[in-house]
Amino acid sequence: MRTLGRCREEGVQSGHFLQSNAPFLGIRSTCFSRVSRTPIIPCSSSEVLRHPGEAARAPSRKELEEHRRSVGICLVNNSGLVFAARRVDDKHGTWQMPQGGIDSGGHENPMTAAVRELKEETGISSARIVALMDEWLDYDFPTDIRSHMTGSWTRYRGQTQKWCLMYYYGDEKEIDLDGHGEREFSDWCWMPLEELPEEVVEFKREVYRKVAQQFGPIIRRRRGQEQMSWWGGK
């Protein structure tokens, strides 16, 4: 039997369902970081992903001047589905994963930013960082979007993102799109990661394909393992 992932609109008790693969029980890592009130402590044994033969690379000064530094969050639940949401200003019915800027002061690392952004955008704190993609992924804003930008956004032609794979062990009652600053999303959904590149806005699709290529195999090869051995408990 195939597992179903629910898409839910705020205020609606039941939603439509998306099909996924067999049940998922977690991803192994030798060191975890809590997404909670406790601070994130980077650990050398965390799983860091990069393309074969590719050295670690931070954004160059030129790239930082042209692309806003940000994080992307691939949040996977116990069924192997990832969290996706629809922006309040979306006019095309697209879905995306949570993301947000890294504090420009330079004192916030990507993992800390991921924890903060996830909490601010979704209310979620019951999650753990499992893997951090070594590569920074860039996308450019289309001309029509840039033409409507104001303030500090006018300095950027796009965003450069560090992506985190995180495991969600909480109850869905914890998910709250209100009350955490300016509301980002109108509704949310659990869906298979491999489907997201076709559901996201077009100019982010290549980034999402790379995220699926990197994190998808981790999710698939860990299916069927006992939850406690994957996550080390809560």
TrEMBL record:
Q: Name one GO biological process term.
A: nucleoside phosphate metabolic process
Mention any one GO cellular component term assigned to this protein in its UniProt record.
chloroplast
An example of a GO molecular function for this protein is:
bis(5'-adenosyl)-pentaphosphatase activity
Which residue range or ranges hold the Nudix hydrolase domain?
66-213
Name the PROSITE patterns for this protein. Answer: NUDIX (PS51462)
Q: What is this protein called?
A: Nudix hydrolase domain-containing protein
| Gene3D superfamilies, per the entry | Nucleoside Triphosphate Pyrophosphohydrolase
* Key words of the record: Hydrolase
Annotated PANTHER family: NUDIX HYDROLASE 26, CHLOROPLASTIC, UDP/ADP-SUGAR PYROPHOSPHATASE
Species, as recorded: Coccomyxa viridis
